[in-house]
Design goal:
The chain is α/β, with parallel strands linked by helices. The protein has two domains: 2-170, VC0802-like; 184-346, Vaccinia Virus protein VP39 (Rossmann fold), CATH 3.40.50.150. The protein is 29% helix and 27% strand. The chain has helices spanning 15-28, 53-59, 116-132, 184-195, 198-204, 220-227, 242-245, 277-290, 307-322; strands at residues 2-9, 33-37, 43-48, 70-79, 99-105, 142-148, 153-159, 210-214, 231-235, 250-253, 266-271, 293-301, 326-331, 339-346. Strands 2-3-1-4-7-6-5 form a seven-stranded mixed sheet. The radius of gyration is 22 Å and the shape is elongated. 42% of the residues are buried.
């Protein structure tokens, strides 16, 4: 059946938080809709009237949403009667459109992972079928998404690649290197990929820059900054890995990350301290208000319930206590758990 709205991937267990966020963002744009969720499914469907389909796509883009890994504009929801022919029932919903690529995806869950083989084979069969039907054009604006909820239940949707997550399901495939001091290194690597465009990263992340890492031990985030060519002041009472210190570009100060301040403006401050999110937000606001750093990335460890409300509360406090116009972007990254990662700078 025809279905208008947004289909969004999220971390399993965070469906209510994404649903609340999509509802608030759509309402702020004057769009009425409702969320449909299944606990631990790893996705949310936000349903709107067909006349609002294009407006909701603009209201809830992937890059601006916190709890969505990837957001797709829905075309239809199908129940396939004949499992030997999944392609023919799709084609009527695609008439009059052209696509430059097709992604066949499945939930990142225990129930969804067995669909990976079907997703590959269906994608391989769908590309030539789209070309035969005149639905394929290398210069088309949109990418086709086929979401397999089961072998016979699927969602059809589209995205504009320039404004969509660059990875299927919104999951970057990062490799944990043996020399990384901790798995937390993957969070900062993904943050640079998700919260900054390639152009912004080239502008703001450069060799020779100076950074501070608050709560640095054992050195995962410091190690990532070193790989970007930066000089790092690591603040933590705990030790850093020997090979991190051996680079000669780390100054380790055994001090409290909540009270230490730099003597000069730094290019970057990063922070991954285990503390109440509102306290972290307040300290980050001080750094931005006082001009101690130009760019910051930090984690907010969220409560078990009402995470979207807590996120809004932290953002409001950041803007109020900073006392300066801020650019705030945040994501629950694939490598995050009960937290979100925030990029913030003074405009």
């Amino acid at each position: 059946m025809q279905q208008a709205g947004a289909f969004a991937w999220c971390r399993a267990g965070f469906e209510p938080d994404l649903a609340a966020e999509l509802t608030d963002r759509a309402a702020a744009a004057g769009i009425a809709g409702y969320a449909r969720t299944e606990r631990d499914s790893g996705y949310v469907r936000f349903i709107v009237d067909a006349s609002d389909a294009e407006r909701v796509e603009r209201a809830v883009p992937w890059r601006d949403t916190v709890f969505s890994r990837s957001t797709v504009s829905m075309l239809a929801e199908l129940q396939i009667a004949d499992a030997t022919d999944r392609i023919s029932p799709m084609l009527p919903y695609l008439e009059g459109q052209t696509f430059n690529d097709v992604w066949v995806e499945h939930p990142d869950s225990d129930a969804g992972k067995p669909l990976s083989g079907l997703a590959r084979s269906l994608g391989n069969a769908l590309r030539p079928a789209l070309k035969r039907a005149g639905l394929w054009a290398p210069n088309a604006e949109r990418r086709l998404h086929v979401v397999l909820l089961s072998g016979t239940h699927l969602i059809l949707g589209t995205t504009r690649p320039a404004f969509a997550a660059p990875w299927p399901q919104g999951i970057p495939r990062l490799r944990m290197l043996a020399e990384a001091p901790s798995r937390s290194a993957l969070k900062l690597e993904e943050a640079f990929m998700s919260l900054l465009s390639p152009q912004e990263k080239a502008l703001h992340v450069k060799e020779g820059m100076r950074a501070a890492d608050l709560g640095a031990a054992p050195g995962g985030w410091t190690w990532v900054l070193l790989r970007e060519g930066m000089h790092v002041t690591a603040i933590d009472n705990g030790p850093l890995r020997d090979h991190v210190m051996a680079t000669g570009r780390v100054t380790h100060l055994r001090e409290d990350g909540f009270s230490w301040r730099p003597q000069q403006t730094l290019d970057w401050m990063v922070c991954d301290m285990v503390e109440q999110p509102i306290r972290v937000a307040s300290r980050m606001a001080t750094w931005l208000r006082e001009g101690w750093c130009r760019n910051s990335i930090f984690n907010l460890k969220l409560p078990m319930k009402k995470r979207w409300l807590e996120t809004q509360r932290c953002f409001d406090l950041l803007e109020t206590e900073a006392g300066r116009p801020l650019e705030i972007r945040a994501k629950q990254l694939y490598h995050d758990r009960e937290e979100i990662t925030v990029y913030c700078r003074v405009l």
